[in-house]
Design goal:
heterodimer; A: about 250 residues; Rossmann fold; 6-stranded mixed beta sheet; B: about 350 residues; alpha/beta; 9-stranded parallel beta sheet; 18 strands; globular
């Protein structure tokens, strides 16, 4: 699905990703854990194609295509999704209109007709209910005056509507109370199947109790320093980043 | 010409007043310049859609009136308007009482009139007047007056589209307890200037809101809101999107008379520049002689947010679509303040079509 080889990337001439290798197969859930400043969010921005990030070397293969050659919107339409740690507020744009525009962009890319208004209403209603998102919220401007929890739910709603093959969740657990964390995790778990993959970026093991990863990687100073299974997350919780990084 | 104020005389005696007009208030309007742009096409604006939801006022509905004596009756604590003096001296005038019409939505195509127009409204009945100031063929300044009697209210949508040159003076006189909601929608113009002078009586409310986008040379809005009596409120917001080397100007003053205590005045001008060739000139001014007032103003000039565009693109939406949606989102706040739902929906569609 996603194959990252010796990736080095910089922002404003400062290298943040310093030779990162990561391979994610269909149906797998990978967790990426690391302290602040280790390059977690930078990796998600680089994979999404955000402007301002320079690729110094390395390659990223996504479903057999060179991901780094694609524009941001093409990456999304090819099936890559990034759930943001801090979703943008868009005043003046109604949430449901934004969702419809995004769905239709993908349908157009796939050569399909625009979604029927009734079909769209039904689809959004059922997905929103699953995430305990009130219909009223869909009428509000996108992410404007949303609470931290509402913003994260909105990201997961977008993810479930676009049904990506490869989803990157960037600190989706930050700012969530335990109830919202459960709802968001259930939303993610419902989407899991043998044809899609997830990269869950987090500081804490807490989220991984709800979204069980197949693999756990620890990132430090722009490189993956240790990989293992779920028990690595537990070990990390016990010992902390510093000690784990030392034993790496 | 004998009844003109000396100030007006001085202006009008000039062979070409546009050429040597030196008043500070006209500095950025560049009225003396004759600009033809390759981008501009004065494609005539088709308002058939609007005629389905409004009553089209004809010339026969108006009465002739003599406004020339008004030239000497300058009611504002400001430098006189050249547009006002010129139009009252050079054009005859018509008047219309809006109360004579039962329809909720009325329409006037200003281009069908060579006269200045004076509207009066006495009742508090909800009424929206659509003023088409589009495809204006004679660019000589003209005046449009609104006199709102006590307790009356009126909503106005000005559509200023596809003008090569259009120069208009608006004067709003509000008697005590009256309400005015004035929205101006300006697009695809080459060189236009609108002047909005308003005087507010006791406990009056005025909304003066404008949007403009896709203009070619100069889009100039000037306003002077005079709080003449106590407990008045004015809310003024102008939003511009400028591209292709065009210039948008906003100059607005809030004047608060010494007796106008408890004034609540708000003024905001916001511009989005889509490229580095385009310009936005903002000149907000406050002149306050009362001590118990709440007045604020602000002005912003910005570009489209790259982070917002990026967010759209991560959801598969292409860059151009994202930019269009963000531009509409920026302007739609102005349209949202229209009270009449049909007119609001029409205006939203118009924005969708033109952006």
């Amino acid at each position: 699905m996603l194959n990252i080889k010796d990736l080095k990337a910089s922002i404003e001439d400062k290298q943040i990703i310093k030779g990162l290798d990561l391979s994610i197969n269909k149906g797998e859930v990978h967790a990426l854990m690391g302290p602040n400043g280790s390059g977690k969010s930078t990796l998600s921005y680089v994979l999404s194609g955000k402007e301002g990030y320079e690729i110094d070397s390395g390659s990223v293969d996504f479903k057999g295509k060179n991901l780094l050659e694609l524009d941001v919107d093409e990456r999304s339409n090819e099936g890559l999704f990034l759930a943001f740690q801090y979703p943008m507020e868009i005043p003046g744009v109604q949430t449901s209109f934004f969702l419809k525009t995004a769905i239709n962009a993908k349908r157009k890319y796939q050569g399909l007709e625009e979604i029927d208004a009734l079909e769209f209403a039904k689809l959004v209603k059922s997905k929103a209910e699953e995430l305990s998102i009130s219909p009223d919220m869909l009428k509000r401007d996108l992410n404007v005056n949303y609470s931290g929890g509402e913003k994260k739910k909105q990201e997961i709603l977008q993810m479930s509507l676009l049904n990506p093959e490869m989803a990157i969740l960037d600190e989706t657990d930050s700012g969530l109370d335990i109830d919202a964390l459960k709802i968001v995790s259930e939303g993610v778990n419902k989407l899991r199947n043998e044809n899609n993959s997830f990269l869950v970026i987090t500081h804490y093991q807490r989220l991984l109790n709800y979204i069980k990863p197949d693999f756990v990687h620890i990132i430090a100073d722009g490189k993956i320093v240790k990989s293992g299974n779920f028990s690595l997350a537990l070990e990390l919780e016990e010992k902390g980043y510093e000690e784990i990084s030392k034993t790496a | 010409m004998n009844n003109l104020s000396s100030h007006g005389n001085k202006i009008l005696n000039d062979f070409n007043p546009f050429k040597n007009f030196k008043l500070e208030n006209y500095k950025y309007a560049q009225l003396h310049k004759d600009h033809t742009s390759e981008n501009f096409s004065d494609s005539s604006y088709d308002y058939n859609e609007l005629l389905k939801i409004s009553h089209n006022l004809q010339k026969t509905d108006f009465e002739e009136t003599d406004l020339s004596s008004k030239v000497d009756k300058w009611n504002f604590n400001s430098i006189d308007s050249y547009f006002r003096v010129s139009s009252l001296s050079n054009r005859s005038s018509l008047t219309l009482n809006l109360d004579n019409f039962s329809q909720e939505v009325l329409l006037v195509d200003v281009n069908h009139f060579s006269e200045n127009i004076s509207f009066t409204k006495n009742s508090s009945k909800n009424q929206t007047l659509i003023l088409i100031t589009s495809n204006i063929s004679n660019p000589k300044p003209r005046s449009i007056f609104f006199d709102l009697a006590e307790n009356s209210n009126l909503e106005i949508l000005q559509l200023a589209l596809s003008n090569n040159k259009s120069f208009i003076y608006f004067e709003i006189n509000q008697s005590d307890f009256s309400k005015m909601n004035f929205i101006t929608f300006q697009s695809n113009n080459n060189h236009i200037r609108n002047e909005y002078y308003a005087s507010l009586g006791e406990k009056c409310e005025l909304n003066l809101l404008g949007l403009n986008f896709k203009n070619n040379f100069i889009n100039d809005n000037f306003s002077y809101i005079q709080h003449s009596k106590p407990s008045t409120a004015s809310n003024e917001i102008f939003k511009s999107i400028v591209d292709n080397g065009a210039i948008t100007n906003f100059q607005g003053k809030i004047y608060v008379d010494p007796i106008a205590q408890k004034t609540d005045g708000y003024q905001m001008s916001r511009s989005l520049l889509l490229d580095s060739k385009s310009k936005a000139n903002n000149k907000p001014e406050l002149e306050i002689y009362a001590d118990d007032v709440k007045c604020s103003h602000g002005s912003t000039v910005a570009k489209l947010s790259q982070n917002q565009i990026y967010y759209f693109k991560t959801r598969g939406i292409d860059e151009q679509t994202a930019k269009n949606i963000l531009q509409k989102a920026f302007l739609v706040e102005i349209i949202e303040s229209l009270q009449n739902k049909e007119i609001k929906d029409f205006s939203k569609k118009l924005l969708d079509n033109l952006i």
